Task: inverse folding
Protein backbone atom coordinates (compact mmCIF):
# COMPACT_ATOMS: atom_id res chain seq x y z
CA UNK A 1 0.00 0.00 0.00
CA UNK A 2 1.10 3.52 -0.74
CA UNK A 3 0.49 6.64 1.27
CA UNK A 4 -0.93 9.68 -0.51
CA UNK A 5 1.99 11.75 0.81
CA UNK A 6 4.45 9.51 -1.06
CA UNK A 7 2.93 10.26 -4.50
CA UNK A 8 4.52 12.81 -6.79
CA UNK A 9 2.70 16.10 -7.32
CA UNK A 10 1.75 14.96 -10.84
CA UNK A 11 0.28 11.70 -9.48
CA UNK A 12 -1.65 13.60 -6.81
CA UNK A 13 -3.07 15.95 -9.46
CA UNK A 14 -4.13 13.01 -11.68
CA UNK A 15 -5.87 11.36 -8.74
CA UNK A 16 -7.75 14.53 -7.76
CA UNK A 17 -8.77 15.08 -11.41
CA UNK A 18 -9.96 11.48 -11.78
CA UNK A 19 -12.01 11.76 -8.59
CA UNK A 20 -13.38 15.18 -9.56
CA UNK A 21 -12.19 16.93 -6.41
CA UNK A 22 -9.83 19.81 -5.76
CA UNK A 23 -8.43 18.68 -2.41
CA UNK A 24 -8.00 15.36 -0.63
CA UNK A 25 -8.42 15.58 3.13
CA UNK A 26 -6.64 13.19 5.47
CA UNK A 27 -9.24 10.40 5.53
CA UNK A 28 -10.83 10.91 2.08
CA UNK A 29 -9.25 7.85 0.46
CA UNK A 30 -10.03 5.60 3.41
CA UNK A 31 -13.60 6.92 3.74
CA UNK A 32 -14.22 6.28 0.05
CA UNK A 33 -12.52 2.84 -0.04
CA UNK A 34 -9.74 3.96 -2.39
CA UNK A 35 -6.44 2.09 -2.17
CA UNK A 36 -3.11 3.30 -3.54
CA UNK A 37 -0.75 0.54 -4.66
CA UNK A 38 2.17 -0.31 -6.89
CA UNK A 39 1.30 -2.23 -10.05
CA UNK A 40 2.52 -5.65 -8.81
CA UNK A 41 0.63 -5.25 -5.56
CA UNK A 42 -2.58 -4.14 -7.32
CA UNK A 43 -2.41 -6.98 -9.87
CA UNK A 44 -2.20 -9.49 -7.02
CA UNK A 45 -4.99 -7.74 -5.09
CA UNK A 46 -7.42 -7.64 -8.02
CA UNK A 47 -6.68 -10.85 -9.84
CA UNK A 48 -4.72 -13.33 -7.71
CA UNK A 49 -6.22 -12.97 -4.24
CA UNK A 50 -9.70 -13.66 -5.54
CA UNK A 51 -8.92 -16.89 -7.40
CA UNK A 52 -10.82 -19.47 -5.42
CA UNK A 53 -11.66 -21.99 -8.12
CA UNK A 54 -10.07 -23.32 -11.31
CA UNK A 55 -12.92 -21.72 -13.24
CA UNK A 56 -11.82 -18.25 -12.08
CA UNK A 57 -8.24 -18.96 -13.14
CA UNK A 58 -9.42 -20.14 -16.54
CA UNK A 59 -11.45 -16.95 -17.03
CA UNK A 60 -8.39 -14.82 -16.29
CA UNK A 61 -6.27 -16.83 -18.73
CA UNK A 62 -8.99 -16.48 -21.38
CA UNK A 63 -9.14 -12.74 -20.73
CA UNK A 64 -5.36 -12.52 -21.24
CA UNK A 65 -5.57 -14.56 -24.44
CA UNK A 66 -8.21 -12.23 -25.93
CA UNK A 67 -6.27 -9.03 -25.20
CA UNK A 68 -5.10 -6.98 -28.11
CA UNK A 69 -1.99 -4.87 -27.89
CA UNK A 70 -2.62 -1.36 -29.18
CA UNK A 71 0.06 0.97 -30.49
CA UNK A 72 -0.01 2.98 -27.24
CA UNK A 73 0.41 -0.23 -25.18
CA UNK A 74 3.83 -1.10 -26.55
CA UNK A 75 6.25 -1.53 -23.67
CA UNK A 76 3.56 -2.51 -21.15
CA UNK A 77 3.38 -5.98 -19.66
CA UNK A 78 0.15 -7.99 -19.55
CA UNK A 79 -0.49 -7.38 -15.84
CA UNK A 80 -0.22 -3.62 -16.41
CA UNK A 81 -2.66 -3.77 -19.35
CA UNK A 82 -5.14 -5.86 -17.32
CA UNK A 83 -4.95 -3.42 -14.42
CA UNK A 84 -5.50 -0.43 -16.69
CA UNK A 85 -8.53 -2.11 -18.32
CA UNK A 86 -10.23 -2.45 -14.94
CA UNK A 87 -12.90 0.24 -14.48
CA UNK A 88 -12.13 0.65 -10.78
CA UNK A 89 -8.49 1.59 -11.43
CA UNK A 90 -7.10 5.10 -11.81
CA UNK A 91 -3.66 5.22 -13.42
CA UNK A 92 -1.45 7.75 -11.64
CA UNK A 93 1.82 6.79 -13.35
CA UNK A 94 3.34 3.66 -14.89
CA UNK A 95 4.09 2.37 -11.39
CA UNK A 96 1.33 3.76 -9.14
CA UNK A 97 -2.41 3.25 -9.29
CA UNK A 98 -5.50 3.96 -7.22
CA UNK A 99 -8.21 1.33 -6.81
CA UNK A 100 -11.76 2.18 -5.75
CA UNK A 101 -13.20 -0.87 -4.02
CA UNK A 102 -16.89 0.10 -4.04
Result:
Amino acid sequence: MLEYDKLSEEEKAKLRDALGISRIHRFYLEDNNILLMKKEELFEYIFLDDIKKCKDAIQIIEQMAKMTIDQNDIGKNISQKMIENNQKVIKLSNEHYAYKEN
Notes: The two ends are 17 Å apart (CA to CA). Residues 54-66 form the longest helix (13 residues).
